[in-house]
Specification:
alpha+beta, single chain, 3 helices, two-stranded antiparallel sheet, 102 residues
Length: 102
């Protein structure tokens, strides 16, 4: 479901205020007073829609990899080389243990 207008503004403002890079908003529309209320903000537990699940998972993966590269930059330092040496990834993406656990 594409988020537009004021609902997109709600998500963007809430995410910015709380420092959330992944965010969804649960809301309700009251028949009694005609107002809309935000009842919950979600970060990683957002409930992906199956129609867009692959795209969403790719976006989440890319975000995680981006943040990991900021925390553990490939800067050629000895620390980075040690981290890389501890894990080896096969071409299928499966992890193979090499050395100590992380």
């Amino acid at each position: 479901l594409e988020v537009v207008g004021k609902y997109k503004d709600w998500v963007d403002l809430a995410a910015a205020e709380l420092g959330m890079e992944i965010c969804s908003v649960d809301g309700v529309h009251s028949k009694k007073d005609g107002k809309e209320y935000i009842i919950e903000l979600n970060d990683s537990a957002i409930g992906l829609n199956y129609r867009h699940e692959e795209e969403d998972l790719k976006d989440i993966r890319d975000l995680v990899l981006k943040r990991m590269s900021q925390v553990y930059p490939n800067d050629g330092t000895e620390e980075y080389k040690k981290l890389v040496a501890k894990k080896k990834f096969s071409e299928e993406g499966e992890e193979e243990e090499k050395g100590e656990d992380w």
